[in-house]
Amino acid sequence: MAKNTNSKRTERMEKNNRNMSFAMKLLTAGFIAEFYLLLVNNYFVKGAVGQVLTMLTVLKVLFYLGCALVGGGVVLFAMREKKEIFAQLGGWLLIGGVFFTLSSQLMLKVYPQGTTFMCILVPVIMILGIVFLMYQREFSVQTLALSLSILATVLLNRGAGKTNWALAVKGYSVFAVLAVLAMQILVLVAQKNDGCVKTLQFFPSKTDYKLTYAVFVVCVLVILAALFVGNAAFYGTWVLSILLFVLAVYYTVKML
């Protein structure tokens, strides 16, 4: 019995160390990406005419560089069985290539909102990734649902009265509602299968899902209220943000 306990403890510590290592890599990559995006924002959005034209050329070059990185990543990933390092390098090249390809196109095609959107999206993805690696899985799901909902309420609040944004913002809000409902269905499936979604053990077997369902309900109600009730988007953003903060404190204390 003692050997089994020590074995489980060692396995858990190794898993935590791997997650911590990957979280630090994700944090580093996120800071580098955000620094790059802030430079683009400074010279491409807020810069003088000459700086804007220079960054226009740079972004076009980075698009082709991103395509090349994606190609290189695919080749290395296909050769991953020959050397283990090929899988890691291929993965990072794919991530970098996709980032440069999509971000450069978004910032070129949607000016200047595309750059602002990327400056917000990168830290959000970074934080969600770290939460997924370091916290309980139920909090990861709750954080994702709340993040989608907060973005919807922020867009609805800022897009009020702007006819050119109204349709796109409402479309995203509907998407956020459907995404939260889809997440609820997946959680229901996991609950019925002892935390498993197909063959993936996503939640621990004794997870309490009540709080997760409550978060889903709050998210859907707040988005619907923001869609149909004036000024509800402003207050909804605060409600969801406070709820996210409270949950973060709760799960942090629970980990101690």
Question: Helices and strands in order, then pairings?
Answer:
Elements: H1 2-45, H2 49-78, H3 84-109, H4 113-134, H5 137-158, H6 163-192, E1 196-197, E2 200-201, H7 210-228, H8 232-255
Antiparallel strand pairs: 1-2
Structural description of this entry:
α6 runs antiparallel to α7. It contains eight helices and two strands, in the order ααααααββαα. The relative contact order is 0.08. It is globular and about 60 Å long. It has a two-stranded antiparallel ribbon with strand order 1-2. With 256 residues, the protein is mainly alpha-helical. β1 and β2 (200-201) form a beta hairpin. The model has no long low-confidence stretch (mean pLDDT 85).
Q: Could you give a quick summary of the protein structure above?
A:
The chain has 256 residues and is mainly alpha-helical.
